[in-house]
Design goal:
187 residues; mainly alpha; three-stranded antiparallel sheet; 3 strands; 51% helix
């Protein structure tokens, strides 16, 4: 895979494994073979969402399901263009009609500019905090201090986050900090 999905697996409250999704799937399969009732959750590190794994079959079959096959055929590549309706005010349509390349090209250009601006700063930090919150909700939503730790997370208050999450298992605290603030080995 050119851009592997990086994941983290937890067995109960402990970090089981972290890395590319195929490696994590095999680690989870091995852990469940040793203890079939072990509660295991796998999280996508990009967005904090839980990933459901299909662990049926051999290791090779599991990995094959997780790595997208290259399905490039003959002819023009599909560009993924989707036609949808948008509603704008007349002044917006008037402005778009004066833009070089037409309305569609102008809208694509504006969207790309906004995405670049968002990716360069605040948007990335917000996405990291939202990923941490999704993870925290799944792993610590019923733990003492969750609400206050969540407030501290979104306020970007690391000291208060540490104080409110002090009673949580160390692996959960560390992973939440890593997702939110890209801190390795944070306690």
């Amino acid at each position: 895979m050119t851009d592997p999905t990086l994941c983290t697996a937890f067995a109960a409250d402990r970090l089981l494994a972290a890395g590319p999704l195929p490696d994590i799937a095999l680690a989870v399969k091995a852990a469940l073979a040793a203890d079939p009732v072990l509660p295991v959750l796998v999280f996508d590190d990009r967005n904090g969402a839980v990933i459901d794994l299909d662990l049926r079959g051999s290791d090779a079959e599991i990995v094959a399901r997780l790595i997208p096959a290259e399905t490039r055929g003959r002819g023009r590549p599909k560009l993924g263009v989707v036609a949808r309706e948008i509603t704008l005010l007349p002044r917006h349509w008037d402005w778009l009609s004066t833009q070089p390349g037409g309305a569609s090209q102008a809208l694509r250009r504006l969207i790309d500019q906004a995405r670049k601006a968002e990716e360069s700063g605040a948007g990335e930090a917000r996405a990291r905090r939202e990923a941490a919150y999704r993870f925290m909700s799944a792993m610590a939503g019923d733990r003492p201090g969750f609400e206050e730790a969540s407030r501290a997370l979104f306020a970007d208050d690391r000291a208060r986050f540490d104080a409110e999450s002090r009673a949580w298992p160390l692996d959960i605290r560390r992973h939440a900090r890593r997702l939110a603030w890209q801190e390795e080995g944070a306690a």
